[in-house]
Amino acid sequence: MLMNTRDGYGLIARSLHWLIAILVIGMLLGGTLIFFLPQGGFRSFLIAVHKSTGVIILLLMIARLIWRIYNPQPRDLEDNPVLKAAARVLHIWLYVLLFIQPLSGILMSQAYGYPVDFFGWFRLPPLIWNSPLLGGVFLEVHRASAVILVFVIALHAAAAAKHHFIDRDRTLLRMLKGR
After folding, report:
1. How much is the pTM?
2. Which tens digit of pLDDT belongs to each residue from 53-91?
3. What is the mean pLDDT of residues 164-171?
4. Would you say 175 and 160 are in contact if contact means Cβ atoms under 8 Å apart?
5. Is the Cβ–Cβ distance between 15 and 6 less than 8 Å?
6. Which of 63, 98, 112, 116 has fewest C-beta within 10 Å?
């Protein structure tokens, strides 16, 4: 089943969720590694891969948002209205941060005067002028949102574990198996 149903997530929603999750975790780890590496060829290579992967995440997030808007979500399994509201807020933050991260990275790079190439196939058009001052602002946004994103992802994973191990409902299984 490609589409979501009342009781489960379809293949497209699940695939986008897990592909983005894997890429984002890799990007958070890779971004941290880049910070500690000395200048040189390997660091430059990782930065190029980091930028290209960020573009992929941005495109996947656009697809995911469109899919979520036009595809009904499965019913909530949470009965507690406070936890239900908290889950909605958490999901909104996930989406917002997963757009802020790649956009701030692209704008940071371009503001510092560095192009954003996509695996050497094409270069993104400049979205901002060369301004090291703005580059510094976008660098701080990129770093701060990465820290917040780690926290929000940890809360998201903890909530999934709570549903699976404490509530013993199908919330996690619906994202793994679809029903």
Report:
1. 0.94
2. 999 999 999 999 999 999 989 998 888 999 999 999 999
3. 92
4. yes
5. no
6. 63
Site of tokens 């602002």: 137
Asked whether residue 179 carries a pLDDT value surpassing 80, the answer given is no
Whose tokens are 């910070």? That residue is: 35
Measured CA to CA, the distance from residue 157 to residue 179 in angstroms comes to 19
* Long-range contacts from 70-78, C-beta under 8 angstroms, 24+ separation: 71/3, 71/4, 71/10, 71/12, 71/13, 72/4, 72/6, 73/4, 74/4, 74/5, 74/6, 74/7, 74/8, 74/9, 74/174, 75/6, 75/7, 77/163, 77/167, 77/169, 77/170, 77/171, 78/163, 78/171
Long-range CB contact pairs, 54-57, < 8 A, 24+: 54/27, 54/101, 54/102, 54/105, 54/106, 55/102, 55/106, 55/116, 55/118, 55/124, 56/23, 57/20, 57/23, 57/24, 57/27, 57/98, 57/101, 57/102
Predicted confidence (pLDDT) per residue in 133-157, tens digit: 999 999 999 999 999 999 999 999 9
